[in-house]
Amino acid sequence: MKSINPENFKVVGPIDLSKIPTNLFNEASDDDKENKLDKVQKKLSELQDIMYAHNRYGVLICLQGMDTSGKDSLIREVFKEFNPRGVQVYSFKTPNSTELEHDYLWRHYLALPEKGKFAVFNRTHYENVLVTRVHPEYIMNENLPGIEKVADITPEFWENRMQQINNFEKHIAQNGTIVLKFYLHLSKEEQRKRLLRRLEKEEHNWKFSVGDLKERERWDDYMNYYQEAINNTATEYAPWYVVPADDKDMCRYIIAEIIWNEMQKYTDIKEPELDDKVKLNLGLYRDQLMKE
Asked: Is the pTM of this model over 0.90?
């Protein structure tokens, strides 16, 4: 299997999603990809144990992508070696009545990772500049000052909202949350195949929603808004990665490798050392326990 460079997927300047491939044509076999992922899984699990003891950073993994892009299975596979106490997954759906009584970022603040832990957002705060742009009528549910009708939602409104997201991410990054954002770049044709599988395989029927077809009709709009959101919110403190998602196994491996690669930059994450006095008396404590 050819080695991958995680930096190749990082957004470092304006991107055009239509020119970025949705499949990384690597000659690796399925077994090879699975073995590579297994190795990274174990390294990430060990790192999380050290992070928990270090207790200085939390890690926020943000996953965005069109329906069927593989977010759920990716979470299951990439984080399956973690201590369950070390990772929490949040799937943000339509805001409920309580959430709508607060600003749109409120529920995301509540779900931020504790120090020493990972949090995975399966769909994220970016839904507020993606779905709501395709369906601006949803903004009316937020009961915002000065927004009485859809026509009141100007281009400046979206520019301000993306700046608010940048400010949110900068604030949490400066306070110890490592933010990594992934766009699972799926082709429209591959989505069609995956939707058909949901219809053709009885055990997957439950995954199918008529709403998926309605949203698929707005594919081009979503691509435009994803591109605009990524281009306006890719920062050093909260980087975006565009990862080919037509091959689920490769996508999982790439994202795991990127997370591992990014975490290596935090060289201060180490297990805390014992107090010198405790170190000197380890033999004494051992003898005390052996005599019981």
From this structure: yes
